[in-house]
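Ticket #4471: structure export looks truncated?
Reporter: QA, pipeline team
Priority: medium

Steps to reproduce: submit the single chain below to the structure queue and open the exported record.
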Amino acid sequence: MTAKIFYSFSLSLILASCQPEVKEKGAGEEAEPEVRWTRTSWPVARGGAGLSGTVGDPILKNPELAWSFKTDGPILGEAMVSGDRVVFGNDMGLLYVLDVKTGELIWKKEYEEALEAAPAIHEGTLFIGCQDSFLYALDLATGEEKWKVETDDKITAGVNLTPRPDGSETWVILNGYDGSCRALRASDGKQMWTYETSEYINGTPAIVDGKKIVFGGCDRVLYSLDVATGEANETIKTDAEIVSTVATSGTFVAWGNYGNEVLSADIATGQRSWRYTDRRFPFMSAPAINETAVFIGCRDKKLHAIARADGSPLWKFKTGGRVESAPLLFTDAVLCASTDGRLYALNLEKGEEQWMLDLGEGMVASPSFANGMIYIGGEDGTLFAVREKSE
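Actual output as written to the record:
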């Protein structure tokens, strides 16, 4: 098996358009601050079940470091946000829950193997896969274990969450290094079905319209499974290992591979759409998708913008290091992180730099966003929280 970078991914959120709201000032009262952010949580990888990497809010205009929290090992998965808590794991097997505003530790838990997968949060329960082969369900408030399920190999992918097709309960959708995709009941971990592939699966599964599960594997196949039964609807053979998470928007799906390509397909027809390639460097990042473009990082140290319609190149932005972190799409900019230790906010149309923030620590983890704060982990074990600078 060739080298792999693992990412983890998400429960779909319906985002209202961003409308500033200012309350009128009463006698003797100061005006309330402008309400700007519609995204108030980040409960699953890539911000939603389709894994599109979209935020629904505008980018911070004048960013500053709000706080940082140092751990003892690299942070490779996304941080999840629910209520007043931000949750993440590190490569030393430590799971942390911090206060979102201050970065103060609320509780932590230690496991024997690495936590590279992104966690997921649903109705007060925290789900996280571990390289010890278990998926754990914990009480978000206390860290108490509710249940755990053992697989046949390590887990490096984030889980996704979806309602059972009849709406009666919530299911956890889990990909494993044992080559299996599983549907588990969120309440107790009972397995509802399993689908076996022939190779490792590294990426978080995407959920499309609550009906299909889409992911790629190291067997070079893109899979589309029926949510209700786990049976394959479509399988699309490709020429190289799919070692990261796919992104979907409706029936459109895009992904990078270890063969230095970005590909797209229509999962309704099971047909590949276009192929994009540049230099001989693999695309290890998960993509982000909006109505017109696909954005994806590459080991060539660049973020690539590709036309969604036909796969033609739009622009490239060069950083000082590899771009293996997945980009985030705001309404007016795309955010990317690099192993050069910097966050970049880029104009959507031309890729021009709007701002750069040097955090001083290489990043391969993907960023998350909630309530006006960007959260991202570093390779040296620091979780960073970035906010709008107060005037």
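Status: closed, not a bug. The export was complete when the record was re-opened. Leaving a note from the reviewer for reference: The domain at 45-55+86-327 is CATH 2.130.10.10 (Methylamine Dehydrogenase; Chain H).
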